Structure prediction request, 292 residues.
Amino acid sequence: MSKPLRQRVILELLENSAVGSQEDLQRALGRRGLKVGQATLSRDIHELGLVKTGAGYVLPSEAASEPALPPVSRLVREFGLEVKAAQNLLVIKTTVGSAQPVAAALDGQDWEEAIGTIAGDDTILMVCSDNRGAKRLAARIQEMLA
Amino acid sequence: MSKPLRQRVILELLENSAVGSQEDLQRALGRRGLKVGQATLSRDIHELGLVKTGAGYVLPSEAASEPALPPVSRLVREFGLEVKAAQNLLVIKTTVGSAQPVAAALDGQDWEEAIGTIAGDDTILMVCSDNRGAKRLAARIQEMLA
DNA sequence: AATGACTATTCATCGTACTGAATAATTATT
DNA sequence: AATAATTATTCAGTACGATGAATAGTCATT
Prediction:
């Protein structure tokens, strides 16, 4: 079973009906042919940033609204080619056409050094708070390439 | 070590110098800090479509010139959300921003049913030879989502 | 406070992709 | 034809991410 698919179905279910517990959710997913354990749902709920209210689980406005991407380490390993710091900028090269998902994953990290991320076709530009931060991030990403 | 990175370095080495054997290649990569076994190089050479000539390994014009993408089954599993056939077209939905790498991998398959592939941001359109071919491909891709 | 319902986490396992040592197969050289 | 060099493949092992049964922890109800 594909995790992004499952998470998208979870989000759809929340839009269309009240889901008061993980067990409800498990049942609802089962009715759509998705058999999944409670532990997995707990993790999905955490990843999606869902919150439990009196009316059941809801998606707060600042939360994901999109299925989780694969781990950034995997995406960098799969698509990343090189990373260079240039003052407070990080330039990351990816395989052709792959910059976008990698950039999204990088953007989703809680790295305090990173201010923003722009993706082209095979190049990602990360703006860092300062030169030192860029160097630190470069090293971090370089490790994922190792 | 990241496989795309290694394959890109291999391609660069071939552009810049003669590489007469896999052992030469292994040594050249070693000089760039990439330690890799002969078996892996044999596979890389196969994946990249390199050909051995009297002058050493070359990249034929119809071959890759780009590092290999991850297996299509992985990309569909990681990013794919749904697949639907509409006559001789296949519409594949992906997570936001992920259509391009998935489409590239789909395009790289030797599927006789597929004529061409276009990727947007989160949607891929595959043109198939006929309605039946589209249905067959849809089923194949749906299996990767399972 | 006790109990039940619910959620989070641990731990063992699985699937997948990949690697390299060893070996088999192929090619080149003598 | 014999031998050496080279390449391809097998097989065992590794890394990684994910899963669910079991359990721990938390919250709600009585």
Summary: Residues 72-145 of chain B form a domain with the Gyrase A; domain 2 fold (CATH 3.30.1360.40). The helical segments of chain B are 3-16, 22-31, 38-48, 72-79, 99-107, 131-145. Chain B has a mean pLDDT of 93. The beta strands of chain B are 51-53, 56-58, 80-86, 89-94, 114-119, 123-128.
